[in-house]
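Journal club side-thread
Mid-discussion, someone asked how the predicted structure for our own chain would compare to the paper's figures. Pasting it here so we can look after the session.
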Amino acid sequence: MKIPFYRIDAFTREAFGGNPAAVVPLERWLDERTLQAIAAEENAAATAFFVDEGTQCALRWFTSTKELELCGHATLATGHVVLNVLHPERSRATFSSPGGPLSVERDGERLALDFPALPPHEQHMPSVADKALGVRADELWEADGQRALAVLADPVQVRELRPNIEAIAALPFSAVIVTARGFDGDCDFVSRYFGPKHGIAEDFATGSAHCVLTPYWAGVLAKRRLFARQLSPRGGELWVEDRGDRVGIAGQCVAIAEGTLTLL
C-alpha cells in the first residue's frame, strides 16, 4: 500500500521554524496500531491523519506515543495541504475530530483556525508549580483538559525559563502553559508549552494552548484581537481572536517535504 505524506512547518513564515507536522491523507481509516506506528516513524511534534468524506474531512492527531484530543498546529498544516495542494479552489476546509467540529479558512496570506475557547476556570496556589518551573508564578490556573496556565511577571522570565521536565510530568496537570505580557511594541503576550505526559518535553508552536491563552489575555488586556509569540527554540507567530465560545487562531505554513509511505 502506498500512502502520500507531507511535512509542514506551522505558525511560521520561515522554513524550519514554527511547529513541524506530518500530514497523511487516507482513503479509509487504518487500524489504530498502524496509525500510531506511522506517527512514531514520522516522529514530528504531531501527525495528522484525515479521510475526505466529501462535505468535510474526518481528522485525528497522534504524537509519537499517543493520540491527542486537540491539536492546533497539525490542523493548520492539514488545512494547508487541503487548501493549497489537494483542493486549491476551496476557501475553507471543515473537519470532524475528537475535539469537535473545526475549520481552517483562508485569511489573506495566513490560514485561520476556528477552535473552541477553553478559558481557565479554576485557580491554584502558584507554589504548586515552583519546583517544576524554577520560578514563582504570579497566578496558576487550570482549564479544561487539566491544562495548567502559569502567568509570570515578565516576558524575559518566559524566554529564559529552564523548567524541570520530570517535575512538570509529576504535576496534576496534563500540560503546562507558561505565559506573560508581551515585549513592548512587539506582541501582546508570549508563551511556552510543556507536555511531557504527551511525549513532548516542549512544544514549539501550540494552537490548542491558545484556546486557553486567547480568552485569558483578551480579558486582561481588554482586546479582542491579539498577536502572540511562542518563545520556543523554533519560535511561533500566532494572530488570535476572542470570539466568545470560540477562538480564531491564524498563522502561516511552510511546506518542507512530501513523499510516499510504503506499507507492506
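Post-session note: The longest strand covers residues 253-262.
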